[in-house]
Amino acid sequence: MVLELQRRFQGTPFSNRLKVIQGDVLKCDLPYFDICVANIPYQISSPLTFKLLSHRPMFRCAVIMFQREFAMRLVAQPGDTLYCRLGVNTQLLARVSHLLKVGKNNFRPPPKVDSSVVRIEPRKPQPSVNFKEWDGLVRICFNRKNKTLGSIFRQKSVLSILEKNYKTLLALQFSQKGSSENKEMALNVSALGDTGEDLSMEIDDDEMEVEDVETRGSEFKDKVLEVLKQGGFEEKRSSKLTEADFMHLLSLFNKAGIHFS
Ligand SMILES: C[S@@+](CC[C@H](N)C(=O)[O-])C[C@H]1O[C@@H](n2cnc3c(N)ncnc32)[C@H](O)[C@@H]1O
Prior knowledge:
Distance between the termini: 43 Å
Largest sheet: 4 strands, mixed
Bound molecules: S-adenosylmethionine
Keywords: Methyltransferase, RNA-binding, rRNA processing, S-adenosyl-L-methionine, Transferase
Number of strands: 4
Radius of gyration: 22 Å
CATH topology of the largest domain: Rossmann fold
Helix content: 25-40%
Family: Belongs to the class I-like SAM-binding methyltransferase superfamily. rRNA adenine N(6)-methyltransferase family.
Number of helices: 9
EC number: 2.1.1.-
Number of domains: 2
Mean pLDDT: 89
Low-confidence stretches: 180-187, 196-210
CATH architecture of the largest domain: 3-Layer(aba) Sandwich
Pfam families: RrnaAD (PF00398)
CATH superfamily of the largest domain: Vaccinia Virus protein VP39
Binding site for S-adenosyl-L-methionine: 1, 24, 39
Structural class: alpha+beta
CATH class of the largest domain: Alpha Beta
């Protein structure tokens, strides 16, 4: 591929404008770019997407071919079957649009999967949200995206993580008493690298019984459920929540001192 590119550009007016960087795109430092056009190996779709989105200065536009299902997840809207953590996180940072379908029969030999070309345009400015917090909430919500939030946040495992975070932060605040605590919430997009890794781990609610429901009453559980009630979220399901809903829910939790990272 590299040799072929060099051969094609050689002797043309563009030859001194071509610079080929040969290496693992996930490991190398990317230079400044404003446009990215790529036909990628599909197994690096998620880490590459978030590597591009964490690159600064932000690029203008990327046009990338993905496996069809990955592409449909990227662009899925609330209520769509493929609406998921990957789409919510990507759409938080970028406008994503499906450009065209590329059927497997366009290739020789035909691969097993169909493809789609997607346009990704980073939002400018980027949203002012702490990404670890955001992703922590979205990850919990989409682990059981068709369950109500009331039932998700009654799970022992979820409550135990949140209570641990809550106590750690309380202890930290106590030890830092007097120092001004209101730190800027920086967008930490690099934490997104693993966003796609558990795509296939979303649990099908209809097939799996949730066993770890916290049945005991506790002050902390009441606090969590009170936040859900306050925002009218208890009976809602992640599969239908918009970005604004997630933002609102996160701000209510944070106001109550409940954090996801
Ligand atoms: C789908 S092919 C596309 C080839 C060519 N760009 C084209 O459009 O015909 C993906 C290419 O990416 C290369 N590749 C695989 N993993 C890579 C990585 N981590 N970094 C850079 N290139 C990689 C593969 O060797 C393969 O040549």
